[in-house]
Amino acid sequence: MHVQFCSIVPPYLLRRLAQQDAPGYSSAASAARKALGHVESFQAARAQAVPVLPPSLRQAKPGPVNRTVYDAGGEETLPGRLVRKEAGRATGDAATDEAYDGLGHTHRLYAEAFGRDSIDGRGLKLDATVHFGNLYDNAFWNGTQMVFGDGDGDVFERFTKSISVIGHELAHGVTQYSAGLVYRNQAGALNESMSDVFGALVEQYVRKQTAAQASWLIGEGLFTPNVQGLALRSMKAPGTAYDDDVLGKDPQPDSMDSYVRTSADNGGVHINSGIPNRAFYLVADALGGHAWEAPGRIWYEALTNGSLPPAATFTVFARATVRAATDLFGSDSKEHDAVRGAWETVKVKV
């Protein structure tokens, strides 16, 4: 399997920002062009092959978290200078300490809610680099570690501010080591959606929020006050996360009725993820309580039990979640009915 570089900011948003010529956004436009160039080079590159774990190894008893945070110092060389390792004291640098805490929160969700031993299922050390590049407008998983930019300051804040972003990017690693969903078309949109789902669950787990209390926003807090918007994406209501003169309106569809057919962004992996995102939200909303419990267990089982093909479509994944709900809770359960109903609402055939 070949690992793709996976970044949090959609190319369509970066492209819109890169085209701005207003004087107040010149540095942001420049930063967006740089980030967009990175995304395009990432998507053109084929990263090193990483083995997918056989399902028998995924239930290894979770061990302790092992985190390492590096500082790129505004350069683009990885990993950078070691600034904090496991059990080390807080540094006082916000990005370093936020990254360290976010890695820990993510590890804890997988260990405590799903019995998973780190990202790969067998204790993978969690590495992150902060202060990557100059005013870098993105965060990404490169197949082996997390990388965070500081943002341009006009549109984007530092990318470690959002727990859901950290959880999102690390979830790409979980997908990489389990189903290995290819990063294109519907499988790629599922890959992105899995990261949004588990990114949201990390945030909710830390805050002890019920499905009703949670915001269901991905990247909340990343935008500066200059932006008319709350986050990069909304799982509850795709297409409503932002509506801004500079960035435009959030274009995510919320059902197959509005599915976007495009060759851009590897076949629309960021834009069409809104459809399975909303399906997960609808399951969580229907069942109530904590979303990492029944809904999270169903999605985690479907992703990691070895039955999902790398090129899975929305329908294939929907059927996998119905089977998982049946296996976990029974065919006459409210969980089974909630999953079927959610996919029907977003017009995905089950």
Report mean pLDDT, rounded to a whole number. 93
Taking strands numbered 1, 2, ... along the chain, how are they ordered across the largest sheet? 1-5-6-4-2-3
- How would a textbook summarize the main sheet? 6 strands, mixed
DSSP, total strands = 10
Structural class: alpha+beta
Distance between the termini: 28 Å
* Helical coverage, percent range: 40-55%
DSSP helical segment count: 10
- The run of helices and strands is EHHEEHEEEHHEEEEHHHHH
Radius of gyration: 19 Å
Query: Which geometry do the CA atoms define?
Result: globular
Task: Provide an overview of this structure.
The protein is of the alpha+beta class and 350 residues long. The protein has helices at residues 11-18, 26-44, 94-114, 163-176, 185-207, 264-268, 274-287, 294-304, 314-329, 334-345; strands spanning 6-7, 67-71, 81-85, 126-130, 139-141, 146-148, 217-218, 233-234, 243-244, 248-249. A six-stranded mixed beta sheet has the order 1-5-6-4-2-3, sandwiched between helices. A hairpin with a 4-residue loop joins strand 5 and strand 6 (146-148). The longest helix is centred in the middle third of the chain and has 23 residues, at 185-207. Residues 46-58 have low confidence and may be disordered.
